[in-house]
Amino acid sequence: MKKTLNYFLNGLLILLFLAGSVSAAGKMVKDDIGDHDKASVGRIGDLIHESLVDGYMLAYHFLDLRDANSDGMDKATMDRTSAMTNKEMEKPHHLMVYIMDNNHKLVLKGKVGFLIKDPEGNSQESMGLYMSRGFGTTADMKKKGTYNIAMKAMLGDKRIMDNFKYEMR
Q1: Where are the domains of the chain?
Q2: What is the DSSP letter of 67?
Q3: Strand runs (DSSP E) across the chain, as ranges?
Q4: How many other C-beta atoms lie within 10 A of the C-beta of residue 91?
């Protein structure tokens, strides 16, 4: 009986050791890919452009607030959006930029500005506000055609500038 109990306890110890090792290995793999996967969770709008500037990864997302639905929005954002959306909105478009540094960490502090030129060359300037782990602004992009979108970010003592074209159809 003593011998059987000894085998049982040794077997139990081995199982506990193996289970702990498997759990730790799984956590290491999850941590290695976790930051990259977590970066895209909860982003607002459709991805419209990506850039790499001075080691920073920039992902731009766009949402027409007049057609807003709950995709990627938490309840508080949905409530704010539905409270202010209607077909007559002056600035019905929401533009977000999500910034990751060269270590794949989200940049959560900084000052971001946008300059948006419509197809006729009229400019809209606005500061991006920190929200949903990125920086966002609203704009009037109701006219069909190609818009020039420029972004400038001050991240500590680092200045990043980017621009791209986006077509409204």
Answers
A1: 1-39, 42-168
A2: G
A3: 46-53, 56-64, 93-100, 111-117, 123-131, 134-139, 145-155, 158-168
A4: 15
State which amino acid sits at residue 51.
S
pLDDT tens-digit map of 41-88: 678 889 999 999 999 999 999 998 887 554 555 556 555 555 555 556
Residue 131's Cβ-count burial label (10 Å; 0-12, 13-18, 19+) is middle
- Model pLDDT for residues 94-124, shown as the tens digit of each residue: 999 999 999 999 999 999 999 999 999 999 9
Query: pTM for the complete prediction?
Result: 0.68
CATH class name, domain 42-168: mainly beta
- Half-sphere exposure at residue 98, Cβ-oriented, CA atoms within 13 angstroms: 23
Q: How far apart are CA 151 and CA 153, in angstroms?
A: 7
